[in-house]
Amino acid sequence: MRFTLATVATALIGAVAVLAAPAPKYTGCSLSSIQIPKEVLVDPTNSSNILAAPAANEKLFKIVLGYGSQNYSCVNGVATPNGAVATLYDLSCAFAVSPEWADVLTRGAVQMDPTAQLAGIQMLKNMFNAQFIAGVHYFKGDFATPLFEFTDKAKFIGGVGGKIPALLGSDTGKRPDNYGAVPSLKLVPKQGMGSTVSTIYRLHTAGGSPPPGTCNWQGQKQIPYAAQYWVYKST
Ligand SMILES: *[C@@H]1O[C@H](CO)[C@@H](O)[C@H](O)[C@H]1NC(C)=O
Ligand SMILES: *[C@@H]1O[C@H](CO)[C@@H](O)[C@H](O)[C@H]1NC(C)=O
């Protein structure tokens, strides 16, 4: 399904209407009844390849929308990951509306230009005077170690523990950088680095892939992307 700006705007208005219902809440909504749908963890090209589900002792701690860029440099003709930067927004109350609305917001984020996207978030923020920013995601200098720092001081320093292609029908990205959605991931903590979070899944990805084929650009390419990060803590 293709989401146009108009669809996203309509969904925003729809969600604003829902969120404006009696006793509205915009951040910190309960996640207790939310689980990752099984099919989201299955490789769409090979059903025997799956991301392992959360362990029985892991509790869903946050779902955040990450919006930013995946960076690449061209090394000997090969597009090579060179870190990423994203702002993390609390998506819990979007899930309280519906998982579809959370998906629309994730796809919508990558389709809008940064100022317009921020304007969308800003609109909700201003209207309800709520804090949506839940943290930041970036890489350590080695470009192989993803870090997440949440505003409540929870943190995660990890590595890839599982990878499958993006969901079928994922948003391919913002033109002219619509080269496809980055893979779904399971991230696990690096030993001894002080993570207070036990697992992070990157799901419902949109955009972020590098141009296909042999590269010959100079410097760094910054490809806009968005994703849902599902954050778990061991209990
Ligand atoms: C599908 O995934 C399984 C498990 O990872 C792997 O053993 C198998 O080779 C894959 N099949 C194909 C056709 O790639
Ligand atoms: C990646 O690109 C962003 C711009 O979107 C930039 O702020 C950041 O410094 C870059 N990160 C790295 C590791 O080069």
TrEMBL record:
Keywords: Signal
InterPro entries (UniProt xref): DUF3455
Lineage: superkingdom: Eukaryota
One Pfam family matching this protein: DUF3455
Entry keyword annotation includes Signal: yes
Official protein name in the record: Malate dehydrogenase
Secretion signal span: 1-20
Organism name: Orbilia blumenaviensis
